[in-house]
Amino acid sequence: MKLTQIGFLYQVAFMPNFFPVNCYLVEEESELTLIDAALPFSVKGILEASRRIGKPITRIVLTHAHGDHVGALDRLKLELPQVKVHISRRDAKLLAGSKELEAGEGQSPIKGDVPKAIRTKPDVLLADGDRIGSLQAVAAPGHTPGSMAFIDVRSRALVAGDAFQVRGGVAVSGLMKLWFPFPALATWNREVSLDSARKLRALAPSVLAVGHGKMIEQPLTVMDRAIEEAARKFRLEKANI
What we know:
By secondary structure, this protein is an alpha/beta fold. It has helices at about 45-55, 65-70, 75-80, 90-95, 180-185, 190-200, 220-240; strands at about 1-5, 10-15, 20-25, 30-35, 55-60, 85-90, 125, 130, 135-140, 150, 155-160, 165, 170, 205-210, 215.
């Protein structure tokens, strides 16, 4: 486990040099909010990070329900039974193991590791604009139908889940990067993902923190390049169909 701090935001990274999987701790006055729950073996590292910071985890907020973002959820809930779990209304269905599409979502299948054995039930179903401590929820569908990002209203640090990737090259979810293709392979709808990437860029974040790769400070230029690359390649691929 590797712990990296930028302001109120702590990245807790597992296997950072091989297959990086990140979750985040957001520091409040007397408590911590955990964003995502990484992998099943991540419980010890997450709790150790909390001890190092010196504050308790009182909330768990999930960007989406893929296995590498909810893997430690059940064990964390056993260790921290008082915490409340937050997820979007839409991805609560994925958390329960359902890949069924809702009306208006087209025919693109939901991809990626949707776990079928998570026992934890969410306490709070989030909508776009909801506040969780210092975080504001931002609906960012595309990687999954109910993906969310969270921006700290104090610092403008943005935790974007898999709406972007950094490992293998900064990219919008759905754009294949050969050195790290996994977020693209697990993306439900890349056109929707591109729209969400533009929405997140419009927030002018001071930090971009994602599920796979290092945090980027002052990320607007790299976000712009990633959005432009995705728009161009998606357009060319569509024209060649």
